[in-house]
Design a protein that fits this description.
Layout (H helix, E strand, L loop, with lengths): L5 E5 L9 H18 L7 E7 L3 E16 L2 E7 L3 E21 L2 E24 L5 E20 L3 H39 L5 E3 L4 E4 L7 E2 L4 E5 L2 E4 L23 E6 H13 L4 E5 L13 H4 L5 H5 L5 E6 L6 E4 L2 E4 L2 E9 L5 E10 L2 E8 L2 E8 L3 E7 L10 H22 L1 E2 L6 E11 L2 E10 L6
Antiparallel strand pairs: 1-11, 1-13, 2-3, 3-5, 4-5, 5-6, 6-7, 8-9, 9-12, 10-11, 13-25, 14-15, 15-18, 16-17, 17-20, 18-19, 19-22, 20-21, 21-23, 24-25
Length: 467
């Protein structure tokens, strides 16, 4: 059970049997590492050694140029309580350089081609979080083992080559093994860590609200999955206040057909209602100019006098204004059957006097059962609402008593043609999921569970083009 408002669960990327999307994402990371390793700068090597019956030999290796570094086989696995392990096997590299050797009065020099084969690299990556709630990654362990080195020397004296090779082969192997891990550590810090920092901690939704996506704890690796718990809380940009209700626990089902799953609890959606209500955004005013022409009536006292006869006497043929507002933040429930809410809306009616001041007429309370359809498009949670039959009640009247049920059809028309389309237009824009740069989701799965919405997807990484 997880108490975060949004939880993400990712599964390890397997080997060659993985789906094309998983392989593409995996191989993009390996391609970046290949590019970095191919730029390794190797130092010149020089030294002396003694050969029995020959004497001291001085050698120099210079201008080492690493032409390529290939990582054909790799696998990413999970390390419980640490993070990720990248295992690379059968890697190989090619380089060339110059050599020089001196034995007494004999000198020789030339060039060489070298191929390093059967290179095995193992990298452990530790995942964490910083004070701002962003994820962190660093190399906790790295080892490189080179099984075979083949060299072809170009020069005059073949017997010198064998003496020379035997002296420097182990030294060269140690240097390259050390340099590979140094480069891995540097690449993780310069490439991977900044990339993870693109995961948004907060996302501005509009001029009223934002979402807090900060990590509430470091990512947790198990033998089966990588879990990330996010705060997942909407907040008012004008005034951030404490949410007056606690988050509910999330219990992920054992699904693993997708690469990543997002669990968004009912708390996440309910903080949206709380934030927009606190920002004063759940207010909708209607005047006659906003009534669609096709509705066949005008918003004035003449229209309403058919249901409230005394209006025509008190405020004859005057325009009206309806002010719709939520007396409290809407609260929804999520269950296996879907997402349901029962909002309460106050409708305050006014007559607009010739002086443009407002005269209060009556205050209605409107309730309805509302269901939602949820989807994911372009990395955003989007949705639309379906409204059931409206129920009206009179909370207060400044024009005397009247039959509220007589207004039922009129209010149904206003809600279905004006209020609901406006809400759905906003929900169509959606709210962004917490995704790093250049990540796209595909093969979307949407399922409802008790107290949370489960979104499953495969991940597609869009790399930057090499310069």
């Amino acid at each position: 059970m997880r108490s975060a408002c949004i939880s993400c669960r990712g599964f390890p990327v397997p080997g060659p049997a993985a789906s094309p999307v998983r392989n593409e994402t995996h191989q993009q990371g390996i391609a970046i590492l290949e590019k970095e390793l191919a730029q390794l700068k190797l130092p010149d090597i020089s030294g002396d050694f003694r050969i029995r019956h020959v004497g001291k030999v001085h050698y120099e290796i210079s201008r080492l140029d690493l032409r390529s570094f290939h990582l054909p086989y790799s696998r990413i696995s999970l390390v419980p309580n640490v993070g990720l392990q990248v295992s690379i096997s059968n890697a190989f590299a090619e380089l060339d350089g110059n050599w020089r050797v001196k034995i007494y009065f004999i000198r020789d020099h030339g060039s060489f081609d070298l191929k390093v084969e059967n290179v095995y690299i193992k990298i452990n990556l530790k995942l964490g979080s910083d004070a701002s709630g962003k994820p962190t990654i660093d190399t906790s362990d790295c080892s490189t083992r080179i099984s075979r080195v083949r060299v072809h020397f170009w020069g005059k004296f073949g017997w010198l080559y064998n003496l020379f090779y035997g002296a420097v082969e182990s030294r060269f192997r140690n240097i390259l093994e050390s340099k590979v891990c140094e480069n891995v550590v540097t690449s993780v810090r310069s490439e991977l860590q900044p990339y993870l920092q693109t995961l948004p901690v907060t996302a501005r939704i509009d001029d009223k609200a934002g979402i807090d996506y900060s990590l509430v704890a470091p990512p947790t690796a198990t033998a089966q999955s990588l879990d990330v718990d996010l705060k997942g809380e909407f907040f008012s940009l004008a005034h951030r206040s404490t949410v007056p209700f606690p988050p509910l626990a999330l219990a992920f089902p054992p699904d693993h057909d997708r690469m990543v799953y997002f669990g968004a609890s009912s708390y996440f959606f309910n903080t949206a209602g709380f934030a927009y209500h606190a920002a004063g955004a759940l207010v909708f005013e209607i005047t006659d100019s906003k009534i669609p022409k096709g509705m066949g009536f005008h918003l004035n006292t003449s229209t309403f006098s058919a249901f409230i006869p005394q209006l025509e006497k008190m405020y004859p043929d005057m325009p009206m204004k309806l002010r719709l507002s939520a007396p409290s933040a809407p609260f929804l429930n999520i269950g296996p059957g879907g997402l349901l809410l029962k909002p309460v809306v106050d409708i305050q009616a006014y007559a607009i006097l010739p002086s443009s001041s407002l005269a209060p007429l009556f205050l209605l309370s409107l309730t309805s059962n509302v269901s939602a359809v949820i989807d994911v498009k372009s990395g955003h949670i989007v949705g639309s609402l379906n409204m059931g039959r409206l129920r009206l009640s009179l909370k207060h009247s400044d024009v005397g008593t009247f039959q509220v049920r007589m207004l039922q059809s009129l209010m149904n028309a206003i809600a279905s043609t004006m209020l609901l389309p406006r809400l759905n237009e906003r929900l169509k824009e959606g709210f962004p999921l917490p995704l790093p740069d250049r990540i796209q989701l595909s093969n979307i799965l949407v399922r409802f569970h008790q107290n949370f919405l489960l979104l499953g997807a495969d991940v597609n990484y869009q790399p930057l083009k090499w310069r």
